[in-house]
Automatic annotation (TrEMBL):
InterPro entries: AIPM/Hcit_synth_CS, Aldolase_TIM, LeuA/HCS_post-cat, NifV/FrbC, PYR_CT. It catalyses: acetyl-CoA + 2-oxoglutarate + H2O = (2R)-homocitrate + CoA + H(+). It comes from the Bacteria. This protein is a Fe-Mo-cofactor biosynthetic component. It is an enzyme of class 2 (transferase). This is Homocitrate synthase. It comes from Dolichospermum compactum NIES-806. Gene3D superfamilies: 1.10.238.260, Aldolase class I. One of its GO terms (biological process) is carboxylic acid metabolic process.
Length: 376
């Protein structure tokens, strides 16, 4: 595959998740972290939101990061002026392209909206800015109209066109078809922006990349509007492990980044969340733990250290003899198979009662209660 760029929008679409509000320090810390691990481009916010947002964006801009910085704008001149006031050199200008959005938001006046887009692109270019255009709701747009808007954006001087599955209604097959069509007719790069309303955001982002999109929008932990966006950590690791595409990003810090964003957003990551959930490298089931003890590749698609995790074997309702013996032996306890089975039976009962796996301390207490003479 060709050179793919991540344009992370945790600080824009991520923060649009209902109830999430980063302060300046948090925005700066997230931007610094993303930059430090090698993320190529950051959509840092919406300058039109006013003073607070502008202050945060200016603070990020003053860091002189390696990542390119992009401000999000409507096709409104005052929005572009606010981006300029932040000292940004790259602006993203969005317009809705679906019939339903143009009707509801612009009373069907698509010509007016296209003229505004043209004026904004022209103004931004005159100010020496680099311009990207976003087709909001591209996935539900009439294909010919979408094509026209993208072609016009290119003609008017935009350097990239963003295909947005704004309400997450595509599947990977349709994403591939639609993005491939745009890629084949435009000479500027396409960016893919996906939402997770049906749990397909990452799959659709990958399908867009497969179809030739050179840039992909992500957010840390998949944070974002409604069900969120394609998760940065999922896109990076899927590209690396499934497609052998290394984006040059230091993946071993992905867990720390996830924790930073979880704290700043007040939105915890569910334990089974891909890549960064706390169960990602936790093995309880006897058959799995036995396999992993022989060779971790049996039940792990990549090594925990690759993303900052450590492997955990936990003892609970589904555990078997091998993992129990392994853990006890680490504490100098060697039981015969009957004794091990007896402990396992109690573990199962206790796990059901406690509705969780047991801690090592609880397990050692169980063994000592049994008073096996050779157990210490
Ligand atoms: C799919 C997306 O994620 S789009 C990004 C959405 N993000 C956000 O809305 C978060 C930040 N937004 C804000 O702070 C505010 O909405 C602002 C500052 C942008 C605008 O605030 P307000 O002036 O109070 O307007 P409000 O939000 O109520 O309504 C949106 C206005 O933008 C217009 N608008 C929406 N999209 C666009 C667009 N792409 N280009 C031009 N105008 C647009 C609407 O028609 C409406 O205009 P009107 O006031 O003339 O009727
Ligand atoms: O940039 C755009 O055009 C809109 C981006 C967006 O957040 C969306 O469509 O979901």
């Amino acid at each position: 595959m060709y050179q793919i760029m991540i344009n992370d929008t945790t600080l824009r679409d991520g923060e649009q998740a209902a109830g999430v509000a980063f302060n300046l320090e948090e925005k700066v810390a997230i931007a610094q972290f993303l930059d430090a691990i090698g993320v190529h481009e950051l959509e840092v916010g919406i300058p039109a939101m006013g003073e607070e947002e502008i202050r945060a964006i200016v603070a990020i801009r003053n860091l002189d990061l390696n990542a390119k910085l992009l401000g999000w704008n409507r096709a409104v001149l005052s929005d572009i002026k606010a981006s300029i006031a932040c000292g940004l050199e790259r602006v993203h200008i969005a317009i809705p392209v679906s019939g339903v959005q143009i009707a509801a938001k612009f009373h069907g006046q698509w010509r007016v909206s296209l003229q505004k887009l043209k004026d904004c692109i022209s103004f931004a270019l005159d100010q020496g800015l680099w311009v990207s255009v976003g087709g909001e709701d591209s996935s539900r747009a009439d294909e010919n109209f979408l094509q026209d808007v993208a072609m016009l954006s290119q003609e008017w001087g935009a350097s990239r066109f963003r295909f947005c599955d704004t309400v997450g209604v595509l599947d990977p097959f349709r994403t591939h078809l639609k993005v491939k069509h745009l890629v084949s007719t435009l000479s500027i790069p396409i960016e893919i922006h996906t939402h997770n309303d049906f749990g397909l955001a990452t799959a659709n982002a990958l399908a867009g990349i497969k179809a030739g999109a050179l840039s992909v929008n992500t957010t840390v932990n998949g944070l974002g509007e409604r069900a969120g966006n394609a998760a940065l950590e999922e896109v990076i690791m899927a590209l690396k492990c499934i497609y052998s595409v290394d984006l040059g990003i230091q993946t071993q810090h992905l867990l720390k980044l996830s924790q930073l964003v979880a704290k700043a957003s007040g939105a915890n990551v569910q334990p089974w969340k891909a890549i960064v959930g706390e169960n990602t490298f936790a093995h309880e089931s006897g058959i799995h733990a036995h396999g992993v003890l022989q060779n971790p590749v049996t039940y792990e698609p990549y090594a925990p250290e690759d993303v900052g995790w450590e492997r955990r074997l936990v003892i609970g309702k589904h555990s078997g003899r091998h993992s129990l013996s392994n853990l006890l032996e680490q504490h100098g306890i060697f039981l015969d198979s009957q004794e091990t089975q007896a402990i396992l039976d109690v573990v199962r009962q206790q796990s059901i009662l406690k509705k969780r796996s047991l801690t090592t301390e609880e397990l050692l207490n169980l063994v000592s209660e049994k008073r096996y003479s050779h157990a210490t």
